[in-house]
Amino acid sequence: ARPRVGYFYVGKPMGEVIADQLRKMKVKDYKSVPVVVSEGTSVYDAIVTMFLEDVGTLFVVRDQAVLAGVVSRKDLLKVAIGAQDVREVPVGLAMTRMPNIIVVTPEENVYEAATKLIDYQIDALPVVRVMDAHNKQLEVVGRFTKTTIARIFVELGSGRDI
Amino acid sequence: ARPRVGYFYVGKPMGEVIADQLRKMKVKDYKSVPVVVSEGTSVYDAIVTMFLEDVGTLFVVRDQAVLAGVVSRKDLLKVAIGAQDVREVPVGLAMTRMPNIIVVTPEENVYEAATKLIDYQIDALPVVRVMDAHNKQLEVVGRFTKTTIARIFVELGSGRDI
User: At a CB cut-off of 8 Å and minimum separation 6, what does A55 contact?
Assistant: First the structure.
């Protein structure tokens, strides 16, 4: 008998079936819009931007889109309970700076992105495109976070065909 | 011929196969240890506890384990940039309070837990056991967060048999 459309034989253990699926899903298809500030932005204004945009991580850029740093709620909280005035301290002093930033490219898969989030214990990855390989300049084109993973997880669990 | 051990026929679309799998995975098998403080803890000490324990959400309890509130980095950041002294303000003034807390039980599945995180736009759920249905008292027995989801995601993507 011919198999019914949409039904198929899977000659693999369940673990491999799911792993294959996650490796087919690309970061570019799930990333969100990045929220960026410039290096001179005060810690206070960065916190306000986080609240207004409802994100947990900001990307710090030069020339509109060149990645310079990443700043998390945790980084800002550290400054906020310190002795300095959050309106005076620039976000550039609180951020993790290039080249110590873990990034992901649009062509990587969501499993690779999730692995980076777990291995480096971070909440968000800037999605980047290499602008200038020689100077290692990276253009920020998106945001991939633990929330993105949770959203994909819910989509997978909803049972919609993929 | 007998099927090889570990290999099987799946008479379902891929989407359903994955959805079934996620519904089999229980919160109790993936939850982390909860990090708790009492209601009188200062916002400053709560922030320090967050850093020391490396978590993004604290559960506020009475009598060691009875859930009274939940406080996130975002809640604490709000107080930290306000006019009040973080060493004077108790965490009870910054937290989300019962009965407005979204919880999960150990017997719920990880898909249900992920759905709550996304639908209510929160980072963490207290895993609770009902102590007293009449008074709606809940005992905190664990923590289920977006990081938990990301960890499960990496485990699924590693292709280990499940």
Answer: A35, A124, A143
A26 at interface of B, judged by CB pairs closer than 8 A: no
Q: What is the DSSP letter of B101?
A: -
- Distance between CA A37 and CA A92 in Å, rounded? 10
Give the whole-angstrom CA distance, residue B123 versus residue B114: 10
Residues B77, A77: C-beta atoms closer than 8 Å: yes
Question: What is the distance of C-alpha A61 from the center of its chain?
Answer: 15
pLDDT in the model for residue B132: 82
Token pair listed for A87: 């309106």
Which residues of chain B neighbour A80 with C-beta distances below 8 Å? 77, 80-81
Contact A73, A81 (CB under 8 A): no
pLDDT at residue B84, as a whole number: 87
ipTM field: 0.90
Residues in chain A closer than 8 A to B162 (CB atoms): 14-15, 18
All domains of chain A in start order, with CATH: 26-157 (3.10.580.10)
CA dihedral B119, A25, A118, A52 (to 10 degrees): -40
Per-residue CA distances from A140 to A111, A130, B79 (Å) = 20, 9, 31
CA–CA distance, B17 with B47 (Å, rounded to integer): 42
Q: From its phi and psi, is residue A113 left (phi > 0), alpha (psi between -120 and 50) or beta?
A: alpha
pLDDT of amino acid B67: 97
Q: Which of B7, B49, B77 to mutate to test the interface with A (most CBs of A within 10 A)?
A: B77
How confident is the model at residue B7, as a pLDDT?
45
* A109: helix, strand or coil: strand
Quickly count helices (H) and strands (E) in chain B: 5, 6
Q: How far apart are CA B156 and CA A21, in angstroms?
A: 10
